[in-house]
Amino acid sequence: MDTYADAVIETLHGVTITLDVTAGAKRSAFPAGYNEWRKSIKCQITAPAVGGKANRAISDLLAETFGVPRTSVEIITGHTSSQKAVAIAGISRSHALARLCAAGT
Fold first, then answer.
1. What pLDDT digit, counting tens, does each position of 4-49 carry?
2. CA atoms within 13 A on the CB side of 10
3. What is the dihedral sign for C-alpha 58, 64, 68, 71?
4. 2-92 belongs to which homologous superfamily?
5. pLDDT digits (tens, 9 = 90+) for 50-90
6. How far apart are CA 27 and CA 38, in angstroms?
7. Rounded distance, CA 15 to CA 65, Å?
8. Contacts of 65 (CB under 8 A, 6+ apart)
9. Model confidence, pTM
10. 3-state SS assignment for residue 88
């Protein structure tokens, strides 16, 4: 559980997760590793970084991983960058870390 701890911050409404995104990957994967330098969780998506397709794919993948509706996932910074901060409403930090560990195995 400690692997992803620095990338997940508890907020009033849920959690904020720092992502390091690779768009146009061969397959979608989350979590796809951890970037120690940036303290961010790696996320790979097959969608290209064109016209918001990658951001929609990230929202879908995170909603599925954390078992929340897509409307609970919001990209708050990094809309046009590979570095993103994503808010996920309605879950606790411990729940998020447990889901990340389960998905990462």
1. 999 999 999 999 999 999 999 999 999 999 999 999 999 999 999 9
2. 6
3. positive
4. YggU-like (3.30.1200.10)
5. 999 999 999 999 999 999 999 999 999 999 999 999 999 99
6. 23
7. 14
8. 30, 99, 100, 103
9. 0.93
10. strand
